[in-house]
Amino acid sequence: MGCNCGKKKKQQQLKKFKEEKEKKLSIRKSWVDLRKEVSRNLTLVQSFGLSMASRGIRNKKIDGPVKQLRVLSCFGNQGVGGELIPCEGLKESKTEGRHFCGLCGCGDRSGTHLISNGEKYSKLDYPVLSCPLQMPGFSNYEPSDEEDRLPPMSRKAYIDNRLTPQDIQKIEVSVPEKDEKLKKEIEEHIKD
């Protein structure tokens, strides 16, 4: 028989090789995770930039019917006697009476509150605004598909297929009147 010296050495080399391979895989996985996170953050920054640009220097706001649809997509319609529950991403703010989206990554700050009092600008007022769930009323809206309509029906499919314009009009929102100069610009743009 032999002393098994060569066998121990091979086992040690194999063990070292496996450890090196695991270390490389771990580094590669970390790199992939980092790239995904950077990509996600870049998308958030791009989305925020588009929203800010759409607001412009005159604090343009979305029109009433679109804001109603956005409020419905976020808050549901149980407050006006309907059966649509609020979005699962809707979070209560630390600021009393305010809410924010817990899915988009913006966090709980005054600029991210979905609805604000009176003339104050809220997140749902931006002319261009993306929703992580691509719900009705948002710039990145994608209509529900056949799978969304199967029981249990998704919130998006419910809005798309069950609600009437009269149901949506029950949602109360505040939208300031456009000043005369802006009205004239819009009318001229429509004529062109």
Q: Which helices and strands appear, and what pairs or packs with what?
A:
Elements: H1 5-55, H2 64-75, E1 90-92, E2 99-101, H3 146-149, H4 155-162, H5 165-169, H6 180-191
Antiparallel strand pairs: 1-2
Helix content: 40-55%
Q: Give the distance, in angstroms, between the N- and C-terminal Cα atoms.
A: 97 Å
Question: Which secondary-structure class do the elements indicate?
Answer: mainly alpha
Q: Output mean pLDDT.
A: 80
List keywords for this structure.
192 residues; two-stranded antiparallel sheet; elongated; mainly alpha; single chain
Notes on the structure:
The chain has 192 residues and is mostly helical. It has a domain at 53-176. It has helices spanning 5-55, 64-75, 146-149, 155-162, 165-169, 180-191; strands at residues 90-92, 99-101. A two-stranded antiparallel sheet has the order 1-2. β1 and β2 form a beta hairpin. The longest helix is centred in the first third of the chain and has 51 residues, at 5-55.
